[in-house]
Amino acid sequence: MLDSSAVVALLGFSFLLGWSPLARFEREQITILVHPDHVIVDGIYFYRNPFPFAIVQGLSIPLPADDVHPIPVDLEVEELWPRHQVLNLRNILGRTRFDLSIQRNETVCLHVHYYQQAPTADARYILTTTEPWLRPLETGEYRLILQEVTLLKSNYPLVNTIGGVAQFQKVQFMPREDWVFSWKAQ
Question: How many CB atoms lie within 10 A of CB 166?
Answer without folding.
Answer: 21
